């Protein structure tokens, strides 16, 4: 996960916002939350990731909130360029 987050940070630092958004949405968030949802909790795919890395419900909820916030911020940053 550390490598994935480092890559995400590098994408944001170099203004590659859509790639960063897609990495967080399709690669990182499902592994942390077991959800395939966007920042507004709209389902994509079948909505469920079968092998989440985080298994504690309270931590998954916290990860979901943090991922959704970051996804929203990435969209804002993308709209500014």
Instruction: Average the pLDDT over all residues and give the rounded result.
Output: 95
Which series of helices and strands comes N to C?
HHEEH
The first-to-last residue Cα distance is 28 Å
Task: Determine the oligomeric state from the structure.
Answer: single chain
Give your account of this protein's structure.
- By secondary structure, the chain is mainly alpha-helical.
- Strands 1-2 form a two-stranded antiparallel ribbon.
- A hairpin with a 5-residue loop joins strand 1 and strand 2 (43-48).
- The chain has one domain (2-80).
- The chain is 65% helix and 11% strand.
- The protein has helices spanning 2-13, 17-33, 57-80, and strands spanning 35-37, 43-48.
- Helix 1 (2-13) runs antiparallel to helix 2 and helix 2 (17-33) packs antiparallel against helix 3 (57-80).
SSE topology sketch:
Elements: H1 2-13, H2 17-33, E1 35-37, E2 43-48, H3 57-80
Antiparallel strand pairs: 1-2
Helix pairs in contact: 1-2, 2-3
Key terms:
81 residues; mainly alpha; two-stranded antiparallel ribbon
Give a short synopsis of this structure:
With 81 residues, the chain is mainly alpha-helical. The protein has helices at 2-13, 17-33, 57-80, and strands at 35-37, 43-48.
């Amino acid at each position: 996960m550390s490598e994935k987050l480092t890559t995400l940070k590098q994408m944001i630092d170099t203004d590659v916002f859509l790639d960063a958004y897609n990495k967080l949405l399709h690669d990182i968030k499902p592994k942390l939350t077991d959800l395939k949802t966007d920042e507004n909790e709209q389902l994509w795919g079948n909505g469920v990731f079968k092998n989440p890395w985080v298994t504690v419900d309270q931590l998954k909820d916290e990860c979901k909130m943090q991922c959704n916030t970051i996804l929203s911020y990435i969209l804002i940053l993308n709209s500014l360029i």
